[in-house]
Amino acid sequence: MTSPIKGKFIKRKLDHKKSKKELVEDVEALRHKIRDLQTELMLDDLTGLFNARHLRMRLEESLTRIEEMQPALLFIDVDYFKSVNEKHGHQTGGHLLNVVGRMIAQLIRVDDVAFRYGGDEFVVLVTGGLDGAMIVGERLRKTIEETAFPVNGMSGPSKVNITISVGIRVVREGDTPKDIIDEADKAMYEAKRRTRNTLVAA
């Protein structure tokens, strides 16, 4: 014979038992949370672009699809960005990077992917080999050069004109993600050494 206390305990457990539908909904909600966390880990906090961690993953993928994609990497650096921070403040500098990041995302093609690499450096993984990279890189360079960016710095509202230097490296068989990034970075520094506000292919 079941005691009254034990009977109440069993009834309480049965009352709280979830239906199959509720369990399915819980699992689906958990999947959404996991998906959201995974997405957050791939994104840059300041600009909302993909981050350097995700760049390496995408480069690994591109190395398995070289013939199909003809991938190339643009390594972009904002020229004289330090002077923007010094003149207008770091908060304004951060806002400017956010605007530049969004502009890059809007100007690239559907199959291209934009990343913030860190600091004032951005990366774009493009398709179409060197020709595709030059087209996208020149579009970014020209548009940014011609844009007066509104800022609200330490001395009040004003506009800032900036330029970018771009290094290009075509992805080749036998590359590693580090090879591609390092050589695109070197090409970008060569662009800075020459004139700035230009493109250089590795």
Task: Give the helices and strands, then pairings.
Blueprint: H1 4-16, H2 20-42, H3 52-62, H4 66-69, E1 72-78, H5 81-88, H6 90-107, E2 113-118, E3 121-126, H7 129-145, E4 148-153, E5 156-161, E6 164-170, H8 177-194, E7 199-201
Helix pairs in contact: 5-6, 6-7
What attributes does this structure have?
two-stranded antiparallel sheet; 2 domains; Alpha-Beta Plaits; five-stranded mixed beta sheet; about 200 residues; flat; 7 strands; 8 helices
Structure described in brief:
This protein is an alpha+beta fold and about 200 residues long. The chain has helices at about 5-15, 20-40, 50-60, 65-70, 80-90, 90-105, 130-145, 175-195; strands at about 70-80, 115-120, 120-125, 150-155, 155-160, 165-170, 200.
Describe this structure in words.
- This protein is of the alpha+beta class and 202 residues long.
- The radius of gyration is 25 Å and the shape is flat.
- The protein has 8 helices and 7 strands; from the N terminus they run H-H-H-H-E-H-H-E-E-H-E-E-E-H-E.
- Strand 6 (164-170), helix 8 (177-194) and strand 7 form a beta-alpha-beta unit.
- It starts with a helix and ends with a strand.
- Helix 5 crosses helix 6 and helix 6 (90-107) crosses helix 7.
- Strands 2-3-1-6-7 form a 5-stranded mixed beta sheet, sandwiched between helices. Strands 4-5 form a two-stranded antiparallel sheet.
- The protein has 2 domains: 4-42; 52-201, Alpha-Beta Plaits.
- The chain has helices at residues 4-16, 20-42, 52-62, 66-69, 81-88, 90-107, 129-145, 177-194; strands at 72-78, 113-118, 121-126, 148-153, 156-161, 164-170, 199-201.
